[in-house]
Amino acid sequence: MRIKHILLSLATLLACAATAYADEGSNQVVSAAGYGAPPQIEGLSGAQRRLMSMRASKLDAYRALAETVQGFRLAGNSTVAALSVQNDSFRTYVDAYLRGARVVSMNALPEGAYETILELDMSKLSSESSSNHPYMMRGR
């Protein structure tokens, strides 16, 4: 039971890295925020660091949007010895096909980080677009 509590706590902490929410109105708009930090790789110019941070924030926002629309799978593993956790790890898996998401904003944050806000209008998704790809709006 304690291991499940730890895994749930870690999953909740991971979910806080990016935020997503659905509009309760009739528009059914889902928004997600993603964050990216500049890489600490030697030899990169300031422009390269900035572009990589921007790209990371956009990918993180897409991941958050996919988790909100599609859900995610959590796999965990814990090793306990002498009633003490020796090793505790988990992974999340997201598998989604998103079409029609748009970048609402991309903002520079302190220390070279970026925030990207994405939006997806669920009411504009047609049954035709969902039938064109096996993963659209359907879990694996």
From TrEMBL:
**Endpoints of the signal sequence:** 1-22
Query: Keywords in UniProt for this one?
Result: Signal
Q: State one Pfam family annotation.
A: LPP20
Q: Any keyword Signal?
A: yes
Domain Lipoprotein LPP20-like: start-end pairs: 47-121
What name is this protein filed under? Lipoprotein LPP20-like domain-containing protein
